[in-house]
Amino acid sequence: MRQAADPNDRAVAAALPRRRTAEFLAGRSLLRHLLRLTVPERASTPIRADANGRPLLDGDPATGISISHDGLAIAVAVGRGQRVGVDVQLPAPHVPDSLLHRCLGRHAQDVIPLSEHRRGVELAWVWTAQEACVKAAGTGLTGSPWSIDVPPGSREGQWGGYRWISLRDRSHTPLSCAFSLSRFPSDADGLEATCS
């Protein structure tokens, strides 16, 4: 997969703080790789951000894209004819009860008795599903991801017009994708979402 960075991506990276450049280019490189596999005609399309910061393929609103990184973990998603969101999260070593109550709501009592490590892991899985949903919706944190009901241990669910999937059987690092249940108005050939 190792390829030279896309010229458009290098230009954007040049304006970023030095500490963010490598992370940014790694995320864009993985996204470009997934685009080459799923929508090859869009692999070199410039990427811009909408008013809320959501990445979009310039001139192609019908192909949803999403990028997430946490530390060295990177995840991307592409949806033909769909809005998509992806989130990857490294578990925190310590999770206060107040954060569990905030993000898990009525399910917090199921996680509080767990070991510190398991609490961090389970919160990370729940958070990735919540965050993937608001990324797909294009609202980010203003969409109050912590208010989305994701029961601990869940592998899939629905929130509004979005379906989310946690890749618990495929990833050791908490990773979830969300995608719209309805199509973008376009001439896209059916619905298809891919998460990597």
Terminal residue distance = 13 Å
Strand content: 15-25%
- Pairing-aware structural class of the strands and helices? alpha+beta
The Cα radius of gyration reads 17 Å
Reading side by side through the largest sheet, how are the strands ordered?
A: 5-8-7-6
Named at the architecture level, the CATH assignment of the domain at 61-195 is: Alpha-Beta Complex
Measured as a percent range, the helix fraction is 25-40%
Unreliable spans: 187-191
Our count of helices gives 5
Q: What is the typical, i.e. mean, pLDDT?
A: 91
Q: At the first level of CATH, what is the class of the domain at 61-195?
A: Alpha Beta
Count of DSSP strands: 9
**CATH topology annotation of the domain at 61-195:** Ribosomal Protein L22, Chain A
Largest sheet: 4 strands, antiparallel
Elements, N to C (H/E):
HHEEEEEHHHEEEE
What structural keywords apply?
P-Pant_transferase_sf, 4-stranded antiparallel β-sheet, Ribosomal Protein L22, Chain A, globular, single chain, 4-PPantetheinyl_Trfase_dom_sf, 4-phosphopantetheinyl transferase, about 200 residues, 5 helices, alpha+beta, holo-[acyl-carrier-protein] synthase activity, magnesium ion binding, about 30% helix, 3-stranded antiparallel β-sheet
What's a quick, concise take on this entry?
The protein is α+β, with helices and mostly antiparallel strands and 196 residues long. The protein is built from 5 helices and 9 strands; from the N terminus they run H-H-E-E-E-E-E-H-H-H-E-E-E-E. It has helices at 7-14, 18-38, 97-104, 108-111, 116-137, and strands spanning 47-49, 55-57, 63-70, 73-80, 84-88, 156-159, 162-166, 175-180, 192-195.
